[in-house]
Amino acid sequence: MKAVILLSGGLDSSTVLYQAKADGCECYAISFDYQQRHRRELDSAKKIAESGGVAEHHVVNFDLRLWGGSALTDNQIDLPSDRSLAEMSENIPITYVPARNTIFMSFALAYAEALNASRVYIGVNALDYSGYPDCRSDYIQAMQEVYRLGTKQGRQGEAIAIISPLIEMKKTEIIQLGNSLGVPWEETWSCYAGGEKACGVCDSCRLRLAAFQDLGLSDPLPYVQRMG
Amino acid sequence: MKAVILLSGGLDSSTVLYQAKADGCECYAISFDYQQRHRRELDSAKKIAESGGVAEHHVVNFDLRLWGGSALTDNQIDLPSDRSLAEMSENIPITYVPARNTIFMSFALAYAEALNASRVYIGVNALDYSGYPDCRSDYIQAMQEVYRLGTKQGRQGEAIAIISPLIEMKKTEIIQLGNSLGVPWEETWSCYAGGEKACGVCDSCRLRLAAFQDLGLSDPLPYVQRMG
Fold first, then answer.
1. What's the pTM value of the predicted model, to 2 decimals?
2. Does the beta-carbon distance from A99 to B115 stay under 8 Å?
3. What is the DSSP string of chain A?
4. What is the pLDDT of residues A150-201, one digit of tens each?
5. How far lies A143's CA from each of A149, A157, B116, B147, in Å?
6. Which residues form the domain of A25?
7. Is residue A214 part of a domain?
8. d(C-alpha A127, C-alpha A134), whole Å
9. pLDDT by residue (tens digit) across A3-62?
10. Which CATH number covers residue A106?
11. Listed residue (A74, A143, A138, A132) closest to A108, CA to CA
12. How many domains is chain B partitioned into structurally?
């Protein structure tokens, strides 16, 4: 069974790739260079695609700086670094990129249909990132309907299924799952900043570090600093 | 009221731009260079955007040849030229590009949300192109749900509305509408081939020529040949 995996190179999508392999899929990875400031994650995506033994890995290029609207694509906007973990879950943050997951899932759908694949895997998570509208299950269901009605494959046979295995999991549970699957954490990248080492203070770093700490584990990734 | 217009440079999307203006919208056009063989249409999109007086026009670049799967992105596949108009409506043709409208509408959504626009206009048509799964109204409704659930704007206020004024119109009706709105047909481009003049024999040329002929009008666009 062929599956397309949306692979950012982060902790979540890397775990999803390893889950798809464990599910018995032949994996085809897709990543996006949208001129995000943390394009460093693409190096990780390439490493993880290789470690994970994918059949093929495409990086799709386009420029989401064209119209701006997000701290992740506009160097003029400061990345948030002082919000509590609780605050992260409550509001839509300035790191939200308009319609980003919709764009990603559209390309994944095109790739999957061209491959005649059965599944698209995505590492969205509704708990840690509940501020993001396009990480919730009602959104994923709406996108599934687009997958069904918007393709030849969905109209004439069985629709490509969207699999989001992490959607209801806590970050600690994702790390436990990844550990059981053998995900090489040192090859992943979660930091929103584009440095050599992970910054340790952006929302994404702090969520990750806090989860490793809660499990009594050490994150093998090098950080500039680790918030206590 | 701001609106994003999906503008290919063809007869349908050009009419839609003029309709959006007639509806009182401030228009922002978006076009796509996806390495389609008929990239000639982008010149038309630029001309029409100018004639139509848009506030801004973005051309988004990406490469849909990466995974192939369509005669429009693969020069090795012959364009169909011998199908009857009836056959065109019945089957999904090899000019179908997997998930193309979903990709286009995803970028339009991103642009619209960044602009704080209220509407996205798209010139899909369910009659002449009923073979295409992503030109039908049930698909547009599914995409509308994605617009509602997948954005900050849709979750917190009123969703960006998808307007598809041509969806139930015949090609002859679209031409009549365009005539009443003053669309400069000579600046538009419908041909799937990438020549200097429109080929006159591909599906898209024949649909267009037949409609002008049915109305007793002459299409001002230069053609290599006009099928009688």
1. 0.93
2. no
3. -EEEEE--SSHHHHHHHHHHHHTTPEEEEEEEES--TTTHHHHHHHHHHHHTT-SEEEEEE--TTSS--STTT-TTSPPP----HHHHHHS--TT--TTHHHHHHHHHHHHHHHHT-SEEE----TTTTTT-GGGSHHHHHHHHHHHHHSSHHHHHSPPPEEE-TTTT--HHHHHHHHHHHT--GGG----SS-SSSB-S-SHHHHHHHHHHHHTT----S-BS----
4. 998 899 999 999 999 999 999 999 999 999 999 999 999 999 887 889 999 9
5. 10, 18, 22, 10
6. 2-183
7. no
8. 12
9. 999 999 999 999 999 999 999 999 999 999 998 888 889 999 999 999 999 999 999 999
10. 3.40.50.620
11. A143
12. 1
Per the domain annotation, does A189 fall within a domain? Answer: no
Least CA distance to A144: which residue of chain B? Answer: B142
- Which of A152, A160, A162 to mutate to probe the B interface, most B CBs <10 Å? A152
Residue showing tokens 């694949």: A117
**Is residue B226, in this structure, part of any structural domain at all?**
no
- Considering only CB atoms, A133 lies closest to which of B67, B111, B152, namely B152
Q: Is residue A46 part of a domain?
A: yes
